[in-house]
UniProtKB/TrEMBL annotation:
Residues 130-323 form the JmjC domain. PROSITE patterns: JMJC. This is JmjC domain-containing protein. Belongs to the JARID1 histone demethylase family. Signal peptide: none annotated.
Amino acid sequence: MEIETLWEEVRELSLGLSGEVERLNSPPTPIQFLRDFVSQNKPCIISNAINHWPALSNWSNDSYLIKSLSSSSSSDPLVSVHLTPNGRADALAPLTKANDSLCFASAHVQHMPFPEALSLISSTGSNFVAYAQQQNDCFRLEYSALSPDCDANIPWASDALGCLPEAVNLWIGNHLSETSFHKDHYENLYAVVTGRKHFLLLPPTDVHRMYIRDYPAAQYLYSQDTKDFTLELDKPLRYVPWCSVNPYPSGKNKVEEMEKFPLFFQGPKPFECTINPGEILYLPSMWFHHVRQSPDDNGRVIAVNYWYDMQFDIKYAYFNFLQSIHYPVLKSTVLKIECEDQLKTNSSEDELCAGVS
Ligand SMILES: O=C(O)CCC(=O)C(=O)O
């Protein structure tokens, strides 16, 4: 059977053919959430689920945030801010201007007092984009002074999943912050507080459409002196498997980019949804997601997400098996040969050529 048939059947039998993510007008019961969404590995958007959070009114107010976090009693009064030249952290980037081999570029992470972080996020005319985030339980570690403004967990999700969140993360970005396609091994309850988040979603069965390849890991370094970034390969060199597809190619290479990834651009459209303030997206484990955002009147988007442990069950085993199948055999073989040729002809670029899994 062609893998294309699998993409179609998953949509026909489970996800629906409309390409839309189901919206619930009120929180589901734990049993409904478990039966209709978690066990089917199917996303949904829940409106009116966090209307009682004081965060919805308090967090549009800078003075409130600054006052709460300046008198913070948390163990670490500094917050983590990701700095990049273009808003794209944990994304593919050309290693140098002269060498367009791609690497997996992580942000320059800086720890600073909250008022400074807020001012950097607002300075959108600068040569950097600041995104306050850290996927290490940062809400509970760095922003505990704001905890009375939200629930500590999403009760119906905790009941359904039979556990409390493993991590709760806060995200404060502006219109330039973008998160590239990736997947996580968590059940994710993603609540938007101010601004809007735009998600593109693809089910785990569509893994081959993401063209996951191994890229050399690199890190942005921002110099206060030159006010510029350099990108340095990790030492020792290590490779990160990452999705190759940019779903919004633009500029003169747009057509070329689209032709490189026909399974993505010519296959079924990704599920596209906007999460408004006060809504929660249930993003099932292992779904590929790409995220952009539209800011509120203060130029910002604030969200809190709850990561719950996923079940490493039979679905996980099936998805792993699927991912291990090389498809389409012909295309990846050609790519591998091209890459190997490039390595042979230019030994000095040995370490820079993106690996092919
Ligand atoms: O909001 C974002 O920029 C990314 C969110 C995300 O990737 C996640 O919650 O796993």
